[in-house]
Write a structure and sequence with these properties.
Length: about 190
């Protein structure tokens, strides 16, 4: 059986130009000076760069797809991470997650069922900047006080459709979670 999750077997992921630190992939260059959502310096794959190469190789322009910021392995799972330092719409995050999953599956030949069983989506957001709605606060409270899944940012349907798990982490907590400390470096 082909290992769709051993990234070194695919030229698109073994290209040294796409290997960057997680900190670099989290950069918000819309601020002056730039701000970073994490200080973690473990090497990961800059999935924005992978997407750009993918679109260029297929004769498409930048408007054809959106992408997550980083791709990495974590405890035998594939992790796609998106960093948001300002306001955003849930639909934007969903589009990035789905486009990235489709690009990954096309590059590797992995089917959706296999991808779903072996992938995690992580959204890292800045709570100081993002003004949560009352629905988001309620969802956060419900998630913490029960065993049910609730998405603060309405990402619920990504869970079990495309990803085994969807995780939303506030910027200040991220660096101390397994999603930052247990990355398999490249």
């Amino acid at each position: 059986m082909k290992d769709y999750f051993c990234l070194k077997h695919f030229d698109e992921f073994s290209n040294p130009e796409v290997h960057k630190t997680l900190k670099v992939t989290s950069e918000d260059n819309s601020k002056n000076p730039s701000e970073y959502m994490t200080q973690v310096k473990t090497k990961v794959i800059d999935f924005d760069e992978v997407k750009e190469n993918y679109l260029k190789d297929h004769g498409m322009n930048e408007d054809n797809a959106k992408s997550v910021d980083a791709l990495y392995k974590l405890n035998d799972k594939l992790c796609m991470a998106e960093f948001k330092n300002g306001d955003f719409k849930s639909s934007e995050i969903i589009e990035k997650a789905l486009s990235s999953a489709m690009i990954y599956m096309d590059i590797t030949g992995c089917c959706l069922e296999e991808f779903r069983r072996n992938s995690v989506f992580v959204l890292v957001y800045n709570e100081r900047v993002k003004n949560p709605s009352s629905r988001q606060w309620a969802a956060s409270y419900k998630a913490k006080s029960s065993n049910r899944r609730y998405s603060k940012f309405q990402l619920d349907h990504l869970w079990k459709f495309c990803f085994e798990k969807v995780v939303e982490i506030e910027k200040g907590e991220f660096d101390n979670t397994q999603y930052a400390t247990q990355i398999e470096s490249y």
